[in-house]
């Protein structure tokens, strides 16, 4: 009988590196981006490596992965990689392979782009496809937004890098808190406690402990243990539902989206920045979420029209001011935009630096 | 029986448009897999109802592991029997997300055989994700994976699968070997990944330079980000060539430098290295003409996380500069001393960044044995609420007055 | 009896040096006033002991007033009988701290007659301060003061004496009549100044322009700071003259402009008025060539205070622009609506800035009936913890689902 | 019998304005600073007004005030004013009066200066001269510091404006929280409760309520009400001593000074900024506080050597970085410098922007 293998870790990456990379490992000299979606890296040795970046919906069937394998076998000596934004990268030393490979990929509906000043692919999460706390569907939103930004993905049409993200609840599994444009699913009401027979389905003390704000208290119903939620303390995070199925938070009427801008992670030029609220609430409107798509388009257009080369959205807003950004986008500024959480004071304008 | 597409009119709208469609991906598997068909039908219901139809319910996993599987159940198993169980399996990706086709074909075969045949390439933390299988298939899938050299990733209150940027494999700016340290750490801490024993999750992400292509500073409890200590290297000839090709270093570098540390007089690049904050802008704009220095290592930062509960945190500087060299002992010692303090002082579900915030960074530094450095803060404290360790007792007072 | 100087050898060290000596001031009065001599001797003891010898003990005041006097008692009245009582009297200064000699001579006579003859010109809040008198002298001194047209300032949980910069009296940048509004408000709110009825102290300071020469933004609960809405006025000829005199507008204005809103090409000044944040730098540097616009008023900010208890606060924007015109009704209405909300919601010893912080600025705005404006914040919120006022109830839900 | 006058308010400022001001009120055109301590304001009318600024210790005897009156009568038609920093300003339309007036004032030991790029006079508080919570003497410190900075007051010797402040306890009656250089008196221990007979001297509930951190609790001693302080909650503010004389906080061994830099109030160029800690503790060393004077001198020298024109200390440090500031001054960076209060997170360096 075989011994059950455990803790073997991930396979060694070295076996997955194409020979040109093994030879030029740590000795790359510079890169160029000859066209959208194509990068050229040149080694100190003079060796050249072309990479073709292909946009992916991230949710891939094995059929598509096998198709990618076919492409890699045909053009790339059997090597490929994925990026930190779920794109696929086909790498080759054969310059002549580039155009045919792109043609073939595009022919099958795979967009080539996402480099330099193009719209990035969208970092996203599970949504209705797989998560129980989701306030919206992530994959669907991404599809609608990227359909709209398709030409911005395949062209270097923007002033600078633009990174997008979607998350389906406040847990923000991804980059929503630090993206140029982010769409965030939100609940607006506390879970509805299904009080009857609750204790049969959930461990009451664990659920109470799961609440980050201490909003959940034990209660008694028909002589049996149950729970109650203090509405004014609840911030709709869904952590309790993860612990107890009798506290569903999804609520078709009150769930929806919010839109955020101006975050970044890179230390390039300016320091990393958190995303900021611009649209507090848009109701869920599947399957195409037109209001969300419109809002994103509006933001991208303002960025295109007013951003200067290299400026991320945050850098641009620094320059023109938030007042002008709201004016240009037409979004309404409301009391929801004014922070009232822990560090709120630091966001108040404690100066007379004002633009009229 | 009707064609599955007619069962999902709303989702079918997402087959339209130019961007690759996840619905198409799912439908491709639905043809052969009733499980996926039911998941699609359930998703259609979500699109109608505007709410999720997944519920949580108990932990599932493989023998000897405390994580790596996310259990998921339909809230309407009668209506969607194929979706009754639909757990995800998190598989640890190879450093840098490089593959050869053989390896991917192996994975596909396993995912097709034991599950939905749907994946996320990759999950937000970096894992390869098999999106959907049943409780029964978990042990078989695990055996098949390990057989081919794959292991599970993390979940729960454990170390999560570390990830890294493409780094030295394909980038001229990698200040150390991100792939190697990522691989090494993953292997070194198998137990911490597979058997949750921390107060909460812990993520490590490794970027080769301050561009931070894995968003380490925003999404990792422990961020390793490459940097250099010595002078930027400049090449005036290359810059002259860029200029000849129509580039304008005043706009692309000089005016964008956050500390006005770079000058270009049409002939020579001048860097005020004492004031350069390693922001990469001039280097990003002119890779052939301006390059990082050669005394290389990394800045270690601590504490990033998403907003639940105290608001989002970025990682902040813990070690301004550390050499990153095999066998990475210095990094490991630091990690372990952090985990020790977290173990002693962290509350349940308290991320390390929240602990640092609650305890105070000065106190935390003292506990892990690192000397305070002014680079760790944007500026010194603004309020006078200093709790002094040193003071005289009343008895000293009495003595002193004598 | 020995010469007083020999009683205070440590203090005598402070007679040395070039800066005017407060010890000299005190000694001048000590010659004739035993009270001051004892205070000096007590101060010498503090210099020896390294601690204060004042203690607090009960409220003193004048009839019908709840403030204006700070009671102070020696902790060693047997040793320093003259310092047994040594209360300060806060007298409301005239707007802008202007005097004629007759008025000052009157004050001096009163202070000499009924007190120590020592003053602070002025206290930090702006009052004229008579530094030291006894409980018995309080009523007589008050009568003497009012006789000559002077009244007390504030103390305790009251409106404190408002103050203002020199403004239109001697400064080209005053955007409105700071002296007049300061005077007017002081007179209008006599009751609020003299009879503490607020949750805590409340300070108003008025500066004619963003240079803020009374530090209103750092030291007033209610800060009125002049600004303008239209375009900066420029005079290229005057600038050319400055340049001819050796000045360099690139260094003194262009490179210092926080938003790069000003350009100078050697002949013409160009201002990007949409981006100018009214920082005054170019105007400060070139008063003859660059001047504020003519559509003038003030920004109203709220909430500054020293650090006790929650950390220091600066005032933050409440009304980005308000015309400041006699009879200042708009300012008064705003003040009163703020006081009303403070009255209803403020805790004991909670400054208005702390209330705004606790309540949330958005909520506070709603309560005082001002619409939110993006200029009130540096940036919109960064966290998702929004408490929505609007949502559907379960009943709506039921209806909607039918 | 006279009716007792109340609530008459302050006298009308108009009677105190010299005629040239009444005529040019609100119509000044521009100003110049012909020499340190002298300002020339020119009206749109062409009228000219000279002002001579004189440094004052703020604590003035009536004798000195009467002396100022004599000067004002002799040279300024009987008018004078004080500034928001307690300096005295003598205003005259007679240019010829300037030199003799300055000579006479300087002859009597009154320094002329404090304008433009000179060291300001020091905003300060009561200290041992008059306050019961003071951890140091304010007037004494000011005297020592200004003796040291005398030439910087009388000359335009600095790169930009430099505003100083002293406060004798955490209440910070003045501008310590927003000054270029600030000296702050601090206690380092909780008040020592004189438990016996306490209730005779103080109202126990009021005292408990006075504590901002809730550190004070009621206690019983010999059957009588008394108080106790939870040491770890106390932040040494002295508020309780204000309410109850049985809780003295002054403590010769543990009281002392801290030094702060980089605050500002003006909106000029950069927004207003809070002062930051640079020296956490210096023991009281009266009468001349040499360590404090040294520290101030060190800061001023670094500012003189490294500041660029118009830069306030905060602006200079922005440019050169805090690391370099600590290096240049030689001050030690300790854990006390790292904020651990409410908004601490916002002061952590969440970037890789570092200078080596
Ligand atoms: C492939 C990838 C790394 C990986 O291991 O997978 C990568 C690769 C490169 N990045 Fe990146 N970055 C990658 C994700 C990121 C991320 C993370 C993210 O997108 O979530 C960031 C930080 C994002 C942020 O700030 O929010 C990132 C911030 C940068 C920057 C700084 C951009 C800026 O100006 O703010 C540069 C420099 C530049 O582009 O000039 C850079 C530059 C580069 C270079 C030019 C490095 C090089 O010399 O090879 C690579 C090609 C860039 C391009 O796309 O034009 N990379 N890069 C990632 C591609 C993601 C994708 O498929 O779109
Ligand atoms: C699968 C994944 C999203 C995706 O579509 O890619 C994911 C999915 C879940 N996340 Fe996450 N998180 C995933 C990356 C992240 C990230 C991004 C990252 O790692 O870079 C974050 C933000 C960074 C961070 O760690 O703070 C993230 C922040 C959270 C949080 C909030 C944690 C916090 O301290 O703020 C929770 C809530 C919790 O832990 O209870 C959470 C909880 C969850 C749970 C386990 C919710 C639950 O209790 O069931 C989700 C399971 C969904 C499902 O059906 O599989 N997830 N989660 C990502 C993991 C895939 C992988 O292993 O590669
Ligand atoms: C007389 C006085 C107003 C009063 O009502 O008493 C005053 C008067 C003037 N101030 Fe001021 N300022 C006065 C206190 C202040 C204060 C408050 C303080 O010192 O506590 C500030 C804010 C301080 C801060 O930021 O911490 C202040 C920030 C300014 C500024 C901005 C300086 C900067 O660059 O940061 C200017 C513009 C300038 O100097 O170029 C200014 C400019 C001026 C001008 C030039 C205005 C004018 O055209 O007449 C006046 C002569 C300045 C000089 O001293 O060279 N005044 N000025 C105050 C003199 C105090 C003293 O005796 O030293
Ligand atoms: C006299 C004066 C200092 C001076 O030497 O000039 C002063 C003196 C006192 N202040 Fe003050 N404050 C004085 C201006 C200030 C200022 C500055 C200002 O008004 O611009 C502040 C900072 C701004 C602010 O209001 O926050 C100030 C913040 C405080 C505080 C802290 C308040 C807070 O909310 O943080 C206290 C504590 C308290 O109120 O219990 C305080 C309390 C005190 C007491 C009443 C302490 C006490 O309980 O006995 C001091 C009486 C000392 C004495 O012996 O007279 N004093 N105090 C100033 C008033 C003179 C005048 O009327 O012109
Ligand atoms: S963001 Fe929320 S709903 Fe979406 S995958 Fe993460 S935990 Fe689930
Ligand atoms: S949703 Fe979050 S905050 Fe609300 S009760 Fe549940 S766990 Fe607590
Ligand atoms: S983080 Fe730096 S080293 Fe890594 S891929 Fe991005 S640019 Fe290259
Ligand atoms: S790396 Fe950044 S900070 Fe350094 S010189 Fe280049 S642009 Fe300036
Ligand atoms: S605040 Fe402005 S208007 Fe008032 S004195 Fe200062 S510079 Fe002049
Ligand atoms: S006032 Fe300030 S912001 Fe406006 S143009 Fe002049 S320097 Fe620039
Ligand atoms: S700072 Fe403190 S000690 Fe000094 S006068 Fe104000 S309350 Fe008194
Ligand atoms: S000194 Fe301040 S914090 Fe300490 S017990 Fe007294 S009132 Fe409370």
Describe this structure in words.
The complex is a heterotetramer, with two copies of chain A (356 residues) and two copies of chain B (402 residues). Chain A has helices at 19-24, 62-75, 95-107, 138-154, 198-201, 204-210, 239-243, 290-306, 313-320, 322-329, and strands at 28-35, 38-43, 48-54, 59-61, 79-82, 88-92, 119-123, 162-167, 181-186, 216-221, 224-229, 256-261, 276-283. Chain A is an alpha+beta fold and 356 residues long. In chain A, the strands form three sheets. Chain A has a five-stranded antiparallel beta sheet. In chain A, strands 7-8-9-12-13 form a five-stranded mixed beta sheet, with helices on one face. In chain A, strands 10-11 form a two-stranded antiparallel sheet. In chain A, helix 4 (138-154) packs parallel to helix 8 (290-306). Among the domains of chain B are: 9-50, no CATH class; 156-228 and 297-401, Sulfite Reductase Hemoprotein, domain 1, CATH 3.30.413; 233-291, Alpha-Beta Plaits (2-Layer Sandwich). Chain B has 16 helices and 16 strands. In chain B, the strands form five sheets. Chain B has a five-stranded mixed beta sheet. Chain B has a four-stranded antiparallel beta sheet with strand order 2-4-7-6. A two-stranded antiparallel ribbon of chain B has the order 1-3. In chain B, helix 3 (22-30) crosses helix 4 (34-49), helix 5 (101-114) packs antiparallel against helix 6 and helix 14 (352-359) packs across helix 15. The longest helix of chain B is centred in the C-terminal third of the chain and has 17 residues, at 329-345. The radius of gyration of chain B is 26 Å and the shape is globular. The model of chain B is unreliable at 398-402 (pLDDT under 50). Chains in contact: A-B, A-C, A-D, B-C, B-D, C-D. Chains A and B meet through strand 1, strand 4, helix 2, strand 5 and helix 4 of A and helix 3, helix 4, strand 1, strand 5 and helix 5 of B. Strand 5 (98-100) of chain C pairs antiparallel with strand 5 of chain D. The complex binds siroheme (4 copies) and iron/sulfur cluster (8 copies). One siroheme (SRM) sits between chains D (31, 33, 39, 83-85, 87, 114-116, 120-121, 123, 160-161, 163, 175, 178, 264-266, 268, 312) and C (165-166, 170-173, 211-213, 215, 284). Chains B, C: Residues 267-295 form the 4Fe-4S ferredoxin-type domain. Chains B, C: Keywords: 4Fe-4S, Iron, Iron-sulfur, Metal-binding. Chains B, C: One of its GO terms (biological process) is sulfate assimilation. Chains B, C: This is Sulfite reductase, dissimilatory-type subunit alpha.
């Amino acid at each position: 009988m075989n011994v059950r293998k455990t803790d073997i870790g991930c396979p060694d990456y070295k076996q997955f590196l194409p020979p040109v990379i093994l030879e030029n490992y740590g000795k790359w000299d510079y890169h160029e981006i000859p066209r959208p979606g194509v990068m050229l890296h040149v080694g100190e040795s003079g060796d050249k490596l072309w990479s073709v970046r292909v946009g992916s919906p991230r949710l891939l069937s094995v059929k598509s992965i096998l198709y990618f394998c076919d492409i890699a076998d045909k053009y790339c000596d059997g090597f490929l990689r994925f990026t930190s934004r779920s794109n696929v990268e086909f790498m080759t030393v054969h310059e002549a392979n580039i155009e045919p490979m792109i043609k073939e990929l595009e022919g099958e509906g795979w967009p080539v782009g996402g480099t330099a000043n193009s719209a990035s692919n969208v970092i996203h999460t599970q949504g209705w496809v797989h998560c129980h706390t989701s306030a919206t569907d992530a994959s669907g939103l991404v599809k609608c937004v990227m359909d709209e930004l398709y030409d911005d993905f395949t062209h270097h049409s923007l002033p600078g890098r633009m990174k997008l993200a979607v998350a389906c609840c406040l847990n923000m599994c991804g980059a929503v808190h630090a993206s140029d444009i982010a769409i965030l699913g939100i609940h607006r009401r506390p879970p509805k406690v299904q009080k009857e027979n609750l204790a049969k389905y959930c461990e009451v003390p664990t659920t109470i402990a799961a609440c980050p704000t201490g909003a959940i208290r034990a209660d008694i119903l028909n002589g049996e243990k149950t729970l109650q939620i203090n509405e004014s303390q609840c911030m709709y995070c869904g952590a309790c539902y993860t612990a107890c199925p009798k506290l569903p938070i999804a609520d078709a009427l009150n769930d929806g989206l919010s839109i955020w801008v101006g975050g970044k992670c890179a230390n390039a030029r300016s320091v990393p920045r958190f995303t900021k609220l611009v649209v507090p609430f848009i109701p869920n409107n599947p399957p195409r979420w037109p209001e969300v798509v419109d809002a994103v388009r509006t933001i991208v257009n303002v960025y295109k029209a007013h951003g200067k080369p290299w400026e991320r959205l945050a850098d641009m807003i620094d320059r023109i001011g938030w007042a002008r950004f709201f004016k240009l986008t037409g979004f309404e500024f409301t009391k929801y935009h004014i922070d009232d959480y822990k560090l709120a004071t630091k966001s108040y304008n404690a100066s007379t630096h004002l633009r009229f | 029986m009707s064609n599955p597409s007619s069962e999902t009119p709303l989702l079918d709208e997402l087959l339209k448009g130019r961007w690759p469609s996840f619905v198409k991906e799912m439908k491709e598997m639905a043809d052969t897999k009733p499980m996926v068909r039911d998941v699609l039908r359930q998703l259609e219901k979500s699109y109608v109802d505007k709410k999720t139809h997944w519920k949580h319910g108990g932990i599932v996993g493989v023998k000897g592991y405390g994580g790596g599987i996310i259990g998921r159940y339909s809230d309407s198993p009668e209506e969607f029997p194929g979706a009754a169980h639909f757990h995800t399996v998190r598989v640890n990706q190879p450093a840098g997300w490089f593959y050869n086709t053989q390896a991917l074909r192996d994975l596909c075969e396993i995912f097709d055989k034991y599950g939905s045949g749907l994946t996320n390439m990759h999950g937000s933390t970096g894992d390869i994700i098999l999106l959907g299988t049943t409780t029964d298939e978990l042990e078989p899938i695990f055996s098949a994976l390990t057989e081919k050299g794959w292991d599970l990733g993390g979940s729960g209150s454990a170390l999560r699968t570390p990830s890294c940027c493409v780094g030295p494999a394909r980038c001229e700016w990698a200040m150390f070997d991100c792939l190697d340290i990522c691989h090494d750490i993953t292997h070194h801490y198998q137990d911490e990944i597979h058997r949750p024993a921390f107060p909460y999750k812990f993520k490590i992400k490794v970027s080769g330079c301050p561009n931070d292509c894995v968003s380490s500073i925003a999404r990792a409890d422990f961020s390793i980000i490459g940097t250099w200590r010595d002078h930027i290297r400049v090449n005036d000839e290359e810059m002259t060539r860029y200029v000849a090709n129509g580039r304008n270093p005043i706009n692309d570098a000089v005016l964008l430098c956050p500390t006005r540390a770079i000058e270009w007089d049409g002939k020579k690049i001048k860097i005020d290295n004492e004031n350069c904050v390693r922001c990469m802008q001039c280097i990003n704009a002119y890779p052939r003409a301006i390059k990082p220095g050669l005394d290389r290592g990394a800045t270690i930062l601590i504490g990033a996380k998403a907003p639940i509960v105290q608001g989002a945190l970025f990682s902040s500087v813990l070690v301004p500069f550390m050499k990153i060299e095999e066998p990475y002992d210095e990094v490991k010692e630091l990690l372990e001393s952090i985990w020790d303090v977290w173990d002693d002082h962290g509350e349940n579900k308290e991320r390390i960044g929240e602990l640092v915030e609650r305890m105070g960074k000065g106190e935390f530094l003292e506990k892990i044995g690192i000397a305070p450095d002014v680079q760790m803060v944007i500026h010194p404290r603004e309020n006078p609420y200093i709790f002094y360790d040193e003071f005289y007792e009343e008895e000293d007072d009495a003595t002193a007055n004598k």
